[in-house]
Write a structure and sequence with these properties.
transmembrane helix, single chain, 4 helices, membrane, PMP3, mainly alpha
């Protein structure tokens, strides 16, 4: 299942975070990072998925 989350995180970073933690603080941080830049959103999403 982590592979699916990481693939989602690469294409749609907030979706990957949502699948991991739901509507938590990490999700909203990822939304902001993705709006500021696509690459920071991907890095944060992969980090959130990998740490849990």
């Amino acid at each position: 299942m982590d592979l699916v989350r990481i693939l989602c995180a690469i294409f749609i970073p907030p979706l990957g975070v949502f699948l991991q933690v739901g509507f938590g603080l990490d999700f909203w941080i990822n939304i902001l990072l993705t709006l500021f830049g696509y690459i920071p959103g991907i890095i944060h999403a992969v980090w959130v998925i990998a740490k849990k």
